[in-house]
Amino acid sequence: MSNNFRNNKFVRIPRIFWDLTTNQVLTMQFCHGQKVDDVVFLKGMKINPEKVAKKLLEVFAEMIFIHGFLHGDPHPGNILVSIEGQGGFSLVLLDHGICKKLDEEFRLEYCQLWKALILLDSRKIQHLAERFGVGKYYRYLPIIFSGRTIDSKSGIGKGMLVEEQKKMKQHLKALEMEDISSFMESLPSNFLIILRTDELLRSTVSKLGASKWVRLLTYGKYASLGLSLKSNPCSGVTNLVLWMEKLKRCLNKFYGKMSAAGKGMSTMFFNIYFKM
């Protein structure tokens, strides 16, 4: 993790003191800071909470879409905001006990999924769902990640139309508890840790008061960059610029209907159903 972010002025990883470390004791650098969701502290230090939220999302999007190596436990106690750093503050990532190496095939397919979610490519979403082993439940992926139905006609920032809400309610009505359990059990381990990470990030970003569309914009940007890394490096910049233009046209506002921050997947399904 330290090596991946060695050139990022906003990220700090505690140093390990190997001469004081044994098989039983891990001795690391002590880093000063406050929990990332401590808005009172941030404002007291004249640090913009929304800027912190944006950087937090960028850091984890880079982990997932670019590095393919993820810190899977980003609750506020594991992320500090330090007033040290060239950017006015830095994010200190603690407790690397739950880290996950994403294989290259999964990383690229997850990048493709986000591109398909933003561009409303239902065929691609279905194809990727089959690749992930959840083909039967492909129509629920847009709901989970972007708050839209698989056949949405509205832009990604405009929320769900009344007709969409009715259709989704009908689909969810037909869901049994066994379906939800089956869906969760069919997800690959890479997917599960990403979902857990995303839930924790959503909760923190919400507490920091950032606009919810920032998450989609950030994920879309890094998913595009993650795909461009596989292509010719020279053409990657051009592809990224063209993709970002499409992204800007799609992202005006973020969804206001669905906010499942801090909730489990089962709770998410039920809340969508009962709040409509």
Helix amount:
40-55%
Series of secondary-structure elements, N-terminal to C-terminal: EEHHEEEEHHHHHHHHH
- Main β-sheet: number of strands, strand sense, barrel status? 4 strands, mixed
Shape: globular
Q: Which class of secondary structure composition applies to the elements?
A: alpha+beta
In spatial order, strands of the major sheet run 1-5-4-2
Question: What is the domain tally?
Answer: 2
Q: Note the beta-strand portion.
A: 5-15%
Compute the separation of the termini in Å. 42 Å
Count of distinct strands:
6
Write the layout of secondary structure elements.
Elements: E1 11-12, E2 34-35, H1 39-44, H2 49-67, E3 69-71, E4 79-82, E5 90-93, E6 99-101, H3 104-118, H4 122-132, H5 141-146, H6 162-173, H7 177-186, H8 189-207, H9 213-228, H10 233-250, H11 265-274
Parallel strand pairs: 1-5
Antiparallel strand pairs: 2-4, 3-6, 4-5
